[in-house]
Amino acid sequence: MQIATLGPDTDSVLVGIRTLPVHKLYLIHLESDKQIAQKLTADLSSVLKVEVETHAVPNNDVLTHVLEGVAGILRKEKESCCCRC
After folding, report:
1. Residue 84 backbone zone (phi > 0: left; psi -120 to 50: alpha; other: beta)
2. Distance between CA atoms of residues 72 and 69, nearest Å
3. What is the pLDDT of residues 8-33, one digit of tens each?
4. What is the pLDDT of residue 29?
5. What integer best gives the mean pLDDT of the chain?
């Protein structure tokens, strides 16, 4: 699982995917970058067969919302973990 923040430039996300193996990707993006996130999600899902889930955060108080998003993702993954880590 990887968690990535997405902005107008998708290169950093693509570099991360090339560098590290990924089977599930969470993209955290600003509400204003929703179309970019949707396009990247479609591309990654169809070409690389990677499961992608997007999480939009408001354009204000970005750091707080991103950290809350990461915490929520980690909580969700922990709850769905089959090994009950």
Report:
1. left
2. 5
3. 888 888 888 888 888 899 999 999 99
4. 96
5. 90
Q: Does an H or E element contain 4, and which? A: strand 2-6
65-85 burial, b for 16+ CB within 10 Å, e for fewer?
A: bbeebeeebeeeeeeeeeeee
Tokens 């968690």 sit at which residue?
A: 3
Closest Cα partner for 37 from 63, 18, 10? 10
CATH 3.40.50.10770 fits 2-80, yes or no: yes
Parse the chain into domains and list their residue ranges. Answer: 2-80
Which residues partner with 5 through β-bridges? 28
Tally of helices (H runs) and strands (E runs) in the chain:
3, 3
The terminus-to-terminus CA distance of the chain in angstroms comes to: 15
